Amino acid sequence: MAKWLFKSEPNVWSWDMQVAKGDVGEEWHGVRNYMARNNMRAMQLGDQGFFYHSNIGKEIVGIVEVCALSHPDSTTDDPRWDCVDIRAIRPLARPVTLAEVKADPRLSKMALVTCMRLSVQPVTEEEWQMVCELGGVAP
């Protein structure tokens, strides 16, 4: 199973809103970046990801799971744009801030540090383990 990170502005779509969707989950729509779209096209059912509050908070707050494979984005008629559906699995016991990630030399190559603008990013298994440890949850 691959690991990912999904960025969302909490005033637009927050962790609490994601949790409220329950097991049905929610379409991760509105992504208009080819690399992020291609990341979603590569996802498999059951892949997990971090839910990251960008701009406000700048912290990883929870873990989500892909519950529907890549499909056309319902917010556009443009066939170039796809999305997946994700559902909340659990919150982190303690949010992990961007500042903490940047300060930890073990995470210096994490896409959150090196490709900050990318809204859907891959996470390595090692990075997953470290962020879970920082967030107080079992991987």
From TrEMBL:
SUPFAM superfamilies in alphabetical order: PUA domain-like
Put simply, this protein is called EVE domain-containing protein
Instruction: Identify the residues that the record assigns to the EVE domain, covering every copy.
Output: 3-134
Any Pfam family from its record, for instance, is EVE
